[in-house]
Amino acid sequence: MVDIEVTSPKLWVLPLTSSQIEKYNYIKEKRDEGYFYYQISDMMNESNFKPQRTDKFTPQQVWGLEFKMEKRLKRLDKIKNPKILKISILEKK
Length: 93
What we know:
Number of domains: 1
Strand order of the largest sheet: 1-2
Distance between the termini: 11 Å
Structural class: alpha+beta
Helix content: 40-55%
């Protein structure tokens, strides 16, 4: 029998959907180009993007999407990769 112990706070992190990543990248790209949140929300409403809980994007939702993703990325950067603490082989008797 093999006994392996791995610890990491990264093990609980839920993966993002491709839709979430696509929305964030679009918002980031438009912000880097100098657009305001109200302009980005209008562009997203005219494109193929769909909000999760409402009919259309508002500037506040666009800001929230960007803010929450930035917060998530900063939090994940602080977390260290998984660390193997102990590996042992147990003899079965």
